[in-house]
């Protein structure tokens, strides 16, 4: 019995070590960190290897903090800066922090200078909306992506740093419920989306 417990503990320890190494080390031999893998409207998505890999900070020429290369936050902020000419008043924070708790659906998020919508929302997601995901047991920082397309009952997103073997694009179902007149992106991790005001 004691030997079984020791073997179990040894395997559990090895799995834990490998998991944390996989978050920092590039396990995918087909890509190198910093390699261009996709783009949206001319804004490039770079490969980051393990989701916990951190490179230098990316600053704009005027000193605006875009984020840590090549994290998910860096891509969405770079997209909003380059494509939408938008700087966030609070240029720091983890992905999950982009969604300000306590705001009503459609309220103005002052830290990001964007309108904020909950999932579900009375406002249908649009192209260029910034999607915010909650944290998980294995990712305490959350995640962010950009809506690249909305067609019918589908939402396509583009993302940076989804993991060494995940795709830069994903498609989610978009559900409209007539009872409350709300739109829901079918993904339990998505807590809402942000949008630049017109």
Polypeptide structure, described:
- The structure is a single chain.
- By secondary structure, the chain is α+β, with helices and mostly antiparallel strands.
- It has one domain (26-195): Alpha-Beta Complex (endopeptidase fold (from Nostoc punctiforme)).
- It has 2 helices and 12 strands.
- The protein has helices at 2-22, 72-82, and strands at 36-40, 43-46, 57-59, 65-68, 108-109, 114-118, 130-133, 143-151, 154-158, 169-177, 182-185, 190-195.
- The strands form 3 sheets. An 8-stranded antiparallel sheet has the order 5-6-12-7-8-9-10-11, with helices on one face. A two-stranded antiparallel ribbon has the order 1-2. A two-stranded antiparallel ribbon has the order 3-4.
- A hairpin with a 2-residue loop joins strand 1 and strand 2 (43-46).
- It is globular.
- It starts with a helix and ends with a strand.
- 30% of the residues are buried.
